[in-house]
Amino acid sequence: MNNTPKAFPISDICCVALLLVFLFLLPSKLFKSPTSFVVEASNGNLLSAAIASDGQWRFPVADSVPVKFKDCIIAFEDKRYYHHFGIDFLAMSRAMRQNLKAKSVVSGGSTLTMQVIRLSRKQDRTIWQKLLEMLLALRLEVKYSKAEILGLYAANAPFGSNVVGLEAASWRYYGRDANTLSWGEMATLAVLPNSPSLVHPGKNATRLIKKRNDLLDKLAKLGYIDQSTANLSKLEPVPGKPLPLPQNAPHLLNRFKAERASLEINSTRIKSTLNEDLQIKINSILKRFNNRYRANDINNISALVLNAKNGSVVSYVGNVYQPEITDLQSHVDMIKAPRSPGSTLKPLLYASMLNDGFVLPHTLVPDIPTQIAGYSPQNYDLGYDGAISADKALSRSLNIPAVKMLQQYKYERFYDKLKKIGIGTLNQPADHYGLSLILGGSEVTMWDLANTYMGMVRTLNHFNTYKGLYNPEDYRPASYFTSEKQEEKNYQRNSFLDHGSIWATFNAMEEVMRPGDEGLWEQFSSSQRVAWKTGTSFGFRDAWAIGLTPNYVVCVWVGNADGEGRPGLVGIEAAAPVLFDIFKLLPNGKWFETPITKLKKLKVCKQSGYKAGENCPVIIDEMVPTAGEKTAACPYHKLIHLDKTGTYRVTDQCESVTNMQHSNWFILPPAMEYYYKIKNSDYRSLPPFMPGCETSGGNNVMELIYPKNAAVVYIPLELDGTRGKVVLNAAHRNQNAKIYWHIDNEYIATTTNYHQFAISPMPGKHTLTLVDENGERLVQVFTVMDKEQKKN
């Protein structure tokens, strides 16, 4: 018995080999040509598109092909499309007979499947290539469905000039989506791939009309449409020259092009989250304001609108898009551009200090001339309040109180907080920015700024949803495209900013005085509650406005892309009107719910805004963030002793205790008092001591406003070359008091009432001594730099 295994017949081996060749004959990706980048609105309409890298308008394969195009192309090219497997032998035999009879190629007989193969290969057509096409067509029918093959054809068929694919053709020739085309328009496009080099809009219109009309008659004959529809469709004009594609979101398109790889999106088409109607209207608003601002050489303006409910972008206008005017630099996406934020970070400091127990909402903060290590901030109006509540300092965007608050909070701590909540442009160490961080000394992008505020909004919105817990995902940047990714739920007990602090901050931001608030803006004030903040960078280079509701965050920037500053380029005048015009487009909604469990009822001194101390005369109950318990007690209310008439202050050395009146008195430090009583007529200065009554010693009646102790002063040269002077300024509790001034123990002047005068001390360290008529002394030092030190 022969147990030798039988060898496979050569025929079997050949069959297996042919089968493998057939299976692997078709490339995994048929079309490797680059496609156009396409951004659609949330409703599927085209917002913007860019030509492919090979100079062709070629859109990615669509999810579906319009029914009208299916009917037209099948009637025109392959009427038995649904009844063959890639090769129509009846059509091929008919074509051979016609070609032999005409002694030229008058009919091809290729099916749509074979045409897809031919479009993907782009090779000269020989008899052998034709046979290979037939084989590949069979393989294509095995791998793809009929609908998918039609989709490949519609996306890659030539439509004349540099237009490839039905979608690109529909927009280039009719300015509309292919799904909206009429039978006449669709029939026109269906005949173009048959001979795109000869028949295309703009040339040979007579032949194009004849081909279209023949196809319409054929559609009627095959029963796709009735003859009256065909006849009416024949009356439609054929398109002329190609139309420009919509450019309603060109900057988002460029952003998508730059970020596609990192986003791991395979297609060059995205369905964005943008609201088409809102995007077009905001484009129009920005163009209107831009036309006005350009008279002042302010050329650029941008706006970003985020949906805080779902964390998506609903409008993205990176700039007023006018590429025909190259000097405007309208191609620059200012939403991504790092710019000085001006005062737009002040609410973040306010919220941080509430969150960490440094202040209460109405705590008084100093607003007096300030010099810190050579840094002298100024308020926009160049005035001083002496002392002002923290929330009003925020609503009025005062610079000096903000710097004082940051000095108390520490800029290093604030720097770390900003990085945690989403400001990604802080690429220098904290010491590089110092206290200027709060006044625009760093750079931010509109994208980071808007997303940071949206994180705060989402945190507060989710107070009840997350049952008082926090989700760090709330600070995740907004998405501008639809995604299947689910939001992670990583609930935590603590967050960067707690609910109570955010709620109090938004309340303070709501009190910001709107531009022209005494006029027409009042009508808007009553219609929608908006928490908002403006900002203006140093040198009038950037004007900002950011506003928020529980549903939306809107950020507006106005300026010049090249950084040129312009007079009048301030947030309240240039950006705020744009902000509120945008809010008029957005639907109204309920205001934030009060996070009751994240607030604590605290006894607060009504006059100072501090936690009530034992000497506070008027105490109120106030709902404050829970960290408010850690704040200091009121330092400004003190118990003083008066004589029985209440006219003079006394001590037990000059008045019997039984004859004294004891009173709680609101006492600010002299420098704060000096400016505070100018703005607050009800402020009561301390009564003077009874004559002959000795004080307890130690100065509490005088304070130097400028220069502060250990200050470094530079005295510039005047225009005529002479050495300038420094103005010394002091405050005394007794407005009628005399102060005797000494520098380096040498008497120089006496002042009464108004304690200010100018001197020109030599470079070097000096001791300044102030003595009042009662012998109270104040001694401080300051240093005058010389010219060479200033240069260094």
Briefly, what is this?
This protein has 792 residues and is of the alpha+beta class.
Overview of this protein structure:
This protein has 792 residues and is α+β, with helices and mostly antiparallel strands. 32% of the residues lie in helices and 17% in strands. It is built from 23 helices and 24 strands. The strands form eight sheets. Strands 7-6-12-11-10 form a five-stranded antiparallel β-sheet, sandwiched between helices. Strand 1 and strand 2 (46-50) form a beta hairpin. 41% of the residues are buried. Residues 18-24 and 516-526 have low confidence and may be disordered.
- The CA-CA distance between the termini, in Å, is 108 Å
Low-confidence region ranges? 18-24, 516-526
The fraction of residues in strands falls at 15-25%
What share of residues is helical? 25-40%
Strand order of the largest sheet: 7-6-12-11-10
Output mean pLDDT. 86
**Shape label:** elongated
Largest sheet: 5 strands, antiparallel
User: Mind telling me the C-alpha Rg?
Assistant: 39 Å
The count of β-strands is 24
Number of helices: 23
Structural class: alpha+beta
What is the topological layout?
Blueprint: H1 10-24, E1 37-40, E2 46-50, E3 57-58, H2 67-77, H3 89-102, H4 112-121, H5 127-143, H6 146-156, E4 163-164, H7 166-174, H8 183-191, H9 205-221, H10 227-234, H11 250-263, E5 269-271, H12 276-293, E6 300-307, E7 312-317, H13 346-355, E8 364-367, E9 386-389, H14 390-395, H15 399-409, H16 411-420, H17 430-433, H18 446-461, H19 499-510, H20 521-525, E10 531-536, E11 542-548, E12 552-559, H21 571-583, E13 599-605, E14 619-625, E15 637-642, E16 661-666, H22 670-679, E17 702-706, E18 711-714, E19 726-732, E20 738-743, E21 746-752, E22 756-759, E23 764-772, E24 777-785, H23 787-791
Parallel strand pairs: 1-5, 3-4, 18-24
Antiparallel strand pairs: 1-2, 6-7, 6-12, 8-9, 10-11, 11-12, 13-14, 15-16, 17-19, 19-22, 20-21, 20-23, 23-24
